[in-house]
Amino acid sequence: MTAPLPARLALGAHAATAGTDLSGVAVTDDTMFLAPDEGATLLRLRRAPGGGSLDWDGPEEVPLADAIALRGVPDDEVDAEGLDVVDGCLWVAGSHSAKRKRVRPETPREEIPERLAQVAPEKSRRLLARLPLRDGPDGPRTVPAGEDVEGLGEAARLPAGKRGLVGALTRDQHLGPFLHIPGKDNGFDVEGIAVREARDGGGVLLGLRGPVLRGWAVLLDLRVHAEGRKLVLDDLTKHLVDLEGLGVRDLARDGDDLLVLAGPTMVLDGPARVVRLPGAAATPLPPAVTADEVELVTEIPVGRGCDRPEGLAVLPEGLLVLHDTPAPDRLDGEHLTGDLWQVPGRS
């Protein structure tokens, strides 16, 4: 595997408001959608003329509250972690995770135990939404909430309560005990989404950063359909994948295959790698996938306290990897640099 090429993302003034810690990415033709790590706003970029997959500019904020009804108040964090664009719709998955109070460098040591005891359910993070896109002269855009797009309907989301994902898993023997544990403590944490059979809303794959169960990561396969502004959960199945102790940090479709960006479930610097599950983007997975059925695509370097791979997208020229806590040398004014990995033999 050769060294990656630098992919420059012009975030402009939005770098200060939406942040440079990126959790998710989806690309359709010449348009890129990004999920910053905080807040309730996505970013929309376009390929720079002549830059191909190495340069993206024209950043615009996409407030999710304009496109879909959200829980809580507009400033509540959605923690969007997974994005996918398929069949004219942008799918957005929030982490659904509880949150433990962060200890900051300036926190007095006598206050650390009290801060670490504070856990909030963060119901605003319980988001799974399908946002129809309308094509325009500069590519697809989301539409205002309640607006119908011909052939696609209006934006719809899964309920956040008993009829949603958390409600369906409350009594689950594997995941139920982890629902109220913060994501960074190996608790329940959605980090990736890949959608197949999307016209009728079926086949929504969610990758969990946690919990990892004795070394086995978890993928959820949801069958949903839209009824007006609501997504209805018809069925849910679990698939265990032996990622050798790592959790899912993002998912991406590569033809009929499913690519998994794998990394630690806890707050650790690595390891990180991209692996392939052959055929998993086209047909359902078995209940369990063993390590010898998982194909290594590439190991991904990480930094010390920085450069934690968090976003994965398949481009014609290679695999785009974006990072949480990017290293200082990835930041150049209003530009952020990701990595474009050129993978021999890709389908």
Features:
DUF3616; DUF3616 domain-containing protein; 25 strands; 5-stranded antiparallel sheet; 4 helices; 9-stranded mixed sheet; Tachylectin-2, Chain A
Task: Produce a short descriptive summary.
Residues 21-335 form the DUF3616 domain. This protein is mainly beta and 347 residues long. 5% of the residues lie in helices and 46% in strands.
Please tell me about this protein's structure.
Strands 1, 2, 3, 4, 5, 22, 23, 24 and 25 form a nine-stranded mixed sheet that branches. Strands 6, 7, 10, 11 and 12 form a five-stranded antiparallel sheet that branches. It is built from four helices and 25 strands. By secondary structure, it is mainly beta. Helices cover 5% and strands 46% of the residues. It has one domain: Tachylectin-2, Chain A, CATH 2.115.10. InterPro entries: DUF3616. This is DUF3616 domain-containing protein. It holds the Pfam family DUF3616.
Shape, per Cα inertia axes = globular
What is the strand tally? 25
- Profile the largest sheet: 9 strands, mixed
* Strand composition percent: over 45%
Ranges where pLDDT stays below 50 over 5 or more residues in a row are none
Count of individual helical segments: 4
Please, what is the average pLDDT? 92
Helical content (DSSP H or I, runs of 4+): under 10%
Distance between the termini: 16 Å
Look at the structure and give the CATH class. Mainly Beta
Question: Order of helices and strands, N to C?
Answer: EHEEEEHEEEHEEEEHEEEEEEEEEEEEE
The domain count comes to 1
